[in-house]
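Extended Data, panel c. Modelled sequence:
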Amino acid sequence: MCVSIRSCIAGFSVMLAACTAGVARPPAGQWRGLHVLNYGTDAALVELGEQVPTLAKMGINVLILEINYAFEYQSHPELRMGNTPTTRDGVRKLVATCRANGVRLIPQFSCLGHQSWAKNTFPLLTKYPELDLTPGAFPDNEGIYCREWDPLNPKVYEIVLPMLDELLDAFDADAMHVGMDEVFLIGSDHSPSTKGKDPAKVFAKAVNDLHAHLVGKRHVEMLMWGDRFIDGKATGYGKWEGSECGTAPAIDLVPKDIIICDWHYGQRDEYPSVPMFIERGFRVWPGGWNKVEATNALIRYSRRFDDPKMLGHLFTTWSGRKKWSEFPPLVEGLKLLQAAD
């Protein structure tokens, strides 16, 4: 009988392993992530996929691909960006490459903010200008950082949520990064829907609406940048790495299962937002960028916190490069992370 039970257990284990083979699970230890963008065609995805084996050998186990509108959306083809946007087949090839190398692939669609760059307004607000948070204001996007969509207009979610679903399905993803950084226009005099309203409550609603769909309905993890939850004046971070436009109190109005990507690009002795997010109950994933010493300072500070909610480090890029394996902050930062293991 015991032999029979052991045989059954062994058989079940083999079957389970077969069913889950090739599926990149969330890293059991440190999350060592790389965030990239500007891979808006299938050819570009092939180039990115060719780098994955090397990056995995270096220690990268999570890849965030910011895709935004550069996908062949079926639900809203009018919002595709570029002449040859990425396709489901192109994405699936990258998914297979990442899984074969033990890398968890997470798509990103920047929500709320970052709906333009310079004079170029992105497809949602070009095709549906009535969804703009500041409709008709700031011609040619002068006088603002980026355009933002109106989080209080339900039509936004009627359009965007099916697009997020398409990305989740194409990436066969168990998580989605929703951006939400560098939002400045909530409560603006140029915003008819939010003028006079509490920016924290408006921002929290935007976060909670996305969370209800992604976590509540699709049962995936939700990641977002953390700057709008940080009081920029109290922490000394300022209006970019923190918020000076009233959104910071939203931190107490959103679910604690959101993964906060806490980006900081300058060198400091302390990064007070890191323990703040941990103490509030969030998992926090600090992120650096293009300066080796600043990245290493953030890594060293973050590793002071022996807490399961401290996930590891996210290397962001924000620029073009042929070989990310030669990106100095990534190379030196991974050495530091591995030396501390």
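The two ends are 44 Å apart (CA to CA). This feature is highlighted in the accompanying rendering.
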